[in-house]
Design goal:
Blueprint lengths: L6 E2 L2 E2 L4 H17 L8 E5 L4 H14 L2 E6 L12 H15 L4 E5 L5 H15 L2 E6 L5 E3 L6 E3 L9 E7 L4 E7 L4 H11 L2 H12 L3 E11 L14 H19 L6 E6 L6 H4 L4 H14 L6 H13 L13 E2 L7 H13 L5 H4 L2 H11 L23
Parallel strand pairs: 3-4, 3-6, 4-5, 6-11, 11-12, 12-13
Antiparallel strand pairs: 1-2, 7-8, 9-10
Helix pairs in contact: 1-2, 1-3, 2-3, 2-10, 5-7, 6-7, 9-11, 9-13
Bound molecules: 1,4-dihydronicotinamide adenine dinucleotide (NAI).
The site of 1,4-dihydronicotinamide adenine dinucleotide (NAI) has 29 residues, from helix 2, strand 4, strand 11 and helix 8.
């Protein structure tokens, strides 16, 4: 079929298998160009099909020569209906990993469930023995709690007061005011259940119980801080409470892994266009200004550059992992540089529908958004008949 992008708000209903393959190949080439990293050799990535999780899997495999198991929740294709992009990304990843002689298997299902955890443990037992790095990179709007059966929904709301600020519809470039009513306690609790650290801890407990963690195993989850303008809706909002919980969980996991010398860390990453971040009001405007400034300064990074730098300069750098005063790894250091943030604060005040095209990098935002779904790659001929029925080899 001929596959074209079909946009609905902040999602795209179609994905292009060849474009997703190109995206994965580009990321692999980048990692290879940076040279080998003496790092983990057996890696489990939970949330491995898009964004930071995919970039972590690619860096593990093509930077560290690691065997990887990836867990994700994606839609396979049906005749005449494309898969979700993470499905095609994972198909391309496995294909490239196998070509390079690297073990790669994937599990598609709800990572919050006991069944998917058990399936993963069984696969590790059968194929890898013990894992030395666990990446936890889920971003989900809902979580069915495995013990209570309750379906929790996360929200993106401020806490304590109504929040009004600018935002942009990145399809049209229209800058407008958005007003978000504050969360109630239930919203906060639900968001913490979905995006906090409970499920991360459950995974680590399950792996430990079955003796599937190597001595000195490490685990990592991803967080975000960001600037003052997004604080009410992000770091001081419902999602921020969940991130506080996730960050606190790192310490309790480290405690529980004492006998094997295991360590849990949270890495604070840079704001980037992913399926998860496009859904958050205000963030797309911030990202379009951020991209403009970071590109002008020559310090712009995508998910793969962030993860390659995280592995090579933080995790596996022969010295102690540098941490901030709250015990977190910071790879958002360039985003948070004072000069970068000062420039954004100024542009934030000035930006309007009329001038955003110049002040911000709306084109860069749109390009990244299209790329998430496998569109907008110059190497791909989008007018050619394309087979949508691509399988993930190990599934
Ligand atoms: P993403 O939307 O690109 O990836 C989410 C991954 O989770 C996908 O692999 C998806 O299949 C998987 N997933 C979702 N629900 C699942 C379920 N129930 N079972 C199994 N897999 C499931 O998200 P992104 O942006 O890469 O986010 C990953 C982490 O990084 C999140 O914790 C996010 O808060 C954090 N982060 C994101 C930033 C950004 O700007 N995008 C910045 C800093 C941190």
């Amino acid at each position: 079929m001929i596959i074209e992008p079909r946009m609905r708000g902040f999602i795209c209903l179609t994905a292009h298998p060849k474009g997703c393959e190109q995206s994965v190949k580009n990321q692999i080439e980048y990692v290879k160009s940076k040279g080998k990293i003496e790092g983990a050799k057996k890696v489990l990535v939970i949330g491995s099909s898009t964004g930071f999780g995919l970039a972590s899997r690619i860096t593990s495999a093509f930077g560290c020569d690691a065997a990887t198991i990836g867990v994700f929740f994606e839609k396979p294709p049906q005749e005449g209906k494309t898969a979700s992009p993470g499905w095609y990304n994972s198909a391309a990843f496995e294909q490239e990993a196998t070509k390079a002689g690297l073990y790669a298997k994937s599990i598609n299902g709800d990572a919050f469930s006991n069944e998917v955890k058990q399936q993963t443990l069984d696969l590790i037992k059968a194929d890898l023995g013990k894992i030395d790095l666990v990446i936890y990179s889920l971003a989900s709007p809902v979580r069915m709690h495995p013990e209570t059966g309750v379906l929790h929904r996360s929200t993106l709301k401020p806490i304590g007061a109504t929040f009004t600020n600018k935002t942009v519809d990145f399809h049209t470039g229209k800058v407008s005011q958005v007003t978000i009513e504050p969360a109630n306690q239930e919203d906060i609790d639900n968001t913490v259940v979905v995006m906090g650290g409970e499920d991360w801890a459950m995974w680590m407990e399950a792996l430990k119980k079955e003796n599937l963690l190597a001595d000195n195993a490490m685990t990592l989850a991803y967080s975000y801080i960001g600037p003052a303008v997004t604080e009410p809706v992000y770091r001081k909002g419902t999602i921020g409470r969940a991130k506080d919980h996730l960050e606190a969980t790192a310490f309790s996991i480290t405690d529980s892994l004492k006998e094997i010398g295991g360590k849990a860390y949270v890495s604070v990453n840079k704001a980037l266009v992913t399926q998860a971040s496009s859904a958050i009001p205000v963030i797309p405007l911030y990202i379009s200004l951020l991209y403009k400034i970071m590109k002008a300064e020559g310090i712009h990074e995508g998910c793969i550059e962030q993860m390659q730098r995280l592995y090579s300069e933080r995790l596996y750098n022969d010295s102690e992992i540098p941490l901030d005063d709250k015990g977190r790894i910071r790879i958002d250091d360039w985003e948070m540089r004072a000069d970068v943030q000062e420039k954004i604060a100024k542009l934030w005040e000035e930006s309007t529908t009329e001038n955003l095209i110049e002040l911000g990098d709306l084109e860069g935002y749109k390009q990244d958004f299209l790329n998430l779904f496998g569109f907008g790659f110059k190497e791909v001929d989008y007018l050619t008949d394309t087979n949508e029925m691509i399988g993930v080899p190990s599934i």
